[in-house]
TrEMBL record:
InterPro entries xref list: ATP_synth_F1_dsu/esu, ATP_synth_F1_dsu/esu_N, ATPsynth_dsu/esu_N
Keyword field: ATP synthesis, Cell membrane, CF(1), Coiled coil, Hydrogen ion transport, Ion transport, Membrane, Transport
GO molecular function: ATP binding; proton-transporting ATP synthase activity, rotational mechanism
Family membership: Belongs to the ATPase epsilon chain family.
Subunit: F-type ATPases have 2 components, CF(1) - the catalytic core - and CF(0) - the membrane proton channel. CF(1) has five subunits: alpha(3), beta(3), gamma(1), delta(1), epsilon(1). CF(0) has three main subunits: a, b and c.
Keyword Transport: yes
Name listed for the protein in its UniProt record: ATP synthase epsilon chain
Annotated function: Produces ATP from ADP in the presence of a proton gradient across the membrane.
PANTHER family: ATP SYNTHASE DELTA/EPSILON CHAIN (PTHR13822), ATP SYNTHASE EPSILON CHAIN, CHLOROPLASTIC (PTHR13822:SF10)
Residue stretches making up the ATP synthase F1 complex delta/epsilon subunit N-terminal domain: 2-80
Amino acid sequence: MLQLEIVTPEKKIYSGPVHDVYLPGSEGEMGVLEMHAALVTSLVPGELRYTVDGKTEALAVGTGFAEVTQERVLVLTDMAAGEAEIDEAATEAAIERAQQQLDQLDHDHDLEEVAMLEAALAKSFAQLKLKGKYKGLQ
């Protein structure tokens, strides 16, 4: 069994033994099993999945890093939300606001603001994707 820890700036989201972990890495989805080679990888907004007691849990995560050892996966991310925590209407409204703000910016001169809005959009889309995937599976 692997020990998984998922931490955001606000709180520890999960800490416990898992069978496997699937991470949204910058180079694509990455699966981790016990005795995996040690590595550190960056994360992009997407779906993080792990299996506990035969049940797969999923979270929408933002950007961050994962440190993998043979016995442990430590995930440091700026956002982690389960399907039940995601407010679909609020997320869709946030996407619309961010897209409107992006449309008003000068993409050649407001590079930092453009990057910030694009990151917010990526996190929102990750949440909606997770919400849509698990809608009705209660």
